[in-house]
Specification:
Layout (H helix, E strand, L loop, with lengths): L1 E10 L3 H12 L4 E5 L6 H5 L1 H18 L16 H24 L6 E3 L2 E5 L2 E4 L3 E10 L3 E3 L12 E2 L1 H4 L8 E5 L3 H12 L3 E5 L11 H12 L3 E3 L4 E7 L2 E7 L5 E6 L1 E4 L3 E3 L37 E3 L10 H19 L13 E4 L4 E5 L11 E7 L4 H5 L6 E7 L5 E8 L2 H13 L4 H4 L11 H18 L17
Parallel strand pairs: 1-2, 1-6, 2-3, 6-17, 8-15, 9-10, 9-15, 10-11
Antiparallel strand pairs: 4-5, 5-6, 7-16, 12-13, 13-14, 18-19, 19-22, 20-21, 21-22
Helix pairs in contact: 1-8, 3-4, 3-6
Length: 489
């Protein structure tokens, strides 16, 4: 067996792993990166990028379908070529993956090892049956995998996950999406708009990452105008029935509903890939799911016997499983692993303001942890509707509701939840304001053009400012600003 000794060993060559590897090398540490599966990040292969390709095709179909509302008529109606749709998804997906593979190939061969890594102890990894790596510090960046209940296995090849969708050659006729989370909502709506009969079914009533009851109720009503969304579906039975799946559940009026689908898409979450890497041979403290406890600011894991030489980043840590967070965590982990290996002090890294976007239409966005991060009695809420918002009506995209949260004591903006057109852009403006610790009054001093969807921020901010002043007993009113005949207003 080959023996390798380095300062830092990185396990996993996804977004977090590559960021950790590059950061450790840049810090001057000798480093290797180990990958047991296919190279190419989750985002590029089965996540962010292929899903957005499918959504883009769905948006094109939807735009043609609603063109008549503008007085523009497409002769002959819409024809969706499922083969062509999926061909473009796969081709562009493979192109994105090739960019990642190119980056991996640029790593010197001596610094990349292929094979399944397993811990021998806190400083040693066995890679397959060919290499033993000893290092002063280790970064776990093994990513995650689609997870679903064991009972789903009985569905056989009628059961798929988001990992499988993007290898379809053609679009099916009917799909039941189990799980109205981010993946379920995005793929469910996209497939519906591409002509697939879709039902998105959940348990417990949650819709995506939304925690604000007003936003959730609005989202549920809006999506149900387009496709079946039952966040608490009360599924009584789900069985394979020939080459289809039969689902028996309780309908809206309490009656029994029986539906048949070509596939069940399990969008029931992802699990960190930490089960088979030998963590039981380390001294790390593990939670009930076997994930190491760690400090999000340093990414250093917690060890039962004191200071740990092991760091964790990305989906493997299950902290904030988003690409930009994985890249940040990887960089922090790589820098600190190198510092530790080179005898220097581990330091906290930059953690940015939290932001999350669901690419439905309207989009869902959460800033700063949303309502669930608020402490009762400490905040006020400002609101804006998009139903009469000028630019949104012009574009026939006037569906949505925005709630902004402000801290009563300081007057600072502290978070938001929204279902809105262009939420991806609104959320970035708000996340930047949050990271810069701006007050609501300061945000109202920022420029906004007319007419733009972003003007809805001013409506909500003015509402929030008034409520914050009232909560503080401040009688001073907000100065009047530009007023439009339509709600910006």
């Amino acid at each position: 067996m080959k023996t390798v000794q380095v300062d830092v060993a990185v396990v996993g060559a996804g977004t977090a792993g590559l960021a950790a590897f590059n950061a450790a090398r840049k810090a001057g540490a000798s480093t290797v990166i180990i990958e047991g599966g296919e190279h190419g990040t989750t985002c590029a292969r089965v996540g962010c990028m292929p899903s957005k390709l499918l959504i883009a095709a769905a948006e094109a179909a939807h735009a043609v379908g609603r063109a008549a509302r503008f007085g523009v008529h497409a002769e002959g109606g819409i024809r969706i070529d499922g083969y062509a749709v999926m061909d473009r998804v796969r081709r562009e997906r493979d192109r994105f993956v090739s960019f990642v593979l190119r980056d991996v190939q640029d790593i010197p061969e001596a610094e990349r090892i292929h094979g399944q890594a397993c811990f021998v102890d806190n400083h040693t990894l066995a890679v397959a049956d060919h290499t033993r790596v000893t290092s002063k510090s280790i970064v776990i960046a093994t990513g995650s995998r689609a997870a679903y209940p064991d009972s789903f296995e009985s569905l056989g090849d009628c059961l798929i996950t988001s990992d499988d969708v993007f290898d379809w050659r053609n679009l099916p006729k009917a799909v039941a999406v189990i799980g109205p989370g981010i993946i379920g909502l995005e793929l469910g709506q996209a497939l519906h708009r591409l002509g697939v009969r879709v039902a998105v079914l959940g348990r417990g009533g949650r819709v995506g990452p939304i925690s604000d009851p007003e936003i959730q109720a609005y989202a549920c009503a809006t999506f149900n105008e387009e496709f079946t969304l039952a966040p608490d579906a009360h599924i009584a039975d789900m069985q394979r029935y020939g080459d289809r799946v039969a689902i028996r559940r309780t309908g809206q009026n309490g009656s029994e509903v029986m539906e048949y689908f070509d596939y069940v898409l399990a969008a029931t979450g992802r699990a960190p890939n930490v089960a088979d890497i030998g963590l039981d041979r380390t001294t790390l403290e593990l939670d009930a799911k076997g994930v190491p406890a760690f400090d999000p600011l340093t990414t250093r894991t917690v060890s039962a016997d004191g200071e740990s030489p092991i760091f964790i980043a990305g989906d493997a840590g299950n902290f904030i499983p988003l690409l930009h967070e994985a890249a940040d965590e990887g960089r922090i982990a790589g820098q600190n692993a190198a510092r530790l290996a080179l005898g220097r002090q581990v330091q906290p890294g930059l953690r940015r303001a939290r932001i999350g976007v669901v690419f439905t239409d309207p989009q869902i966005a959460i800033v700063g942890g949303g309502l669930r991060a608020m402490k009762p009695g400490t905040f006020a809420t400002g609101q804006a509707s998009f139903e009469d918002q000028g630019r949104s009506r012009i574009l026939l995209r006037n569906k949505g509701l925005l709630n902004l949260y402000g801290d009563v004591a300081s007057g600072r903006f502290v978070g938001a939840e929204m279902l809105a057109p262009a939420a991806e852009h609104l959320a970035h403006l708000l996340a930047w304001a949050l990271q810069n610790e701006m007050t609501v009054a300061q945000m109202l001093e920022m420029p906004l053009y007319h007419p733009v969807i972003e003007e809805a921020l001013r409506t909500a901010l003015r509402d929030l400012d008034l409520k914050l002043r009232a909560a503080r007993g401040d009688a001073e009113k907000v100065a009047p600003e530009f007023v439009c005949t339509s709600n910006e207003s």
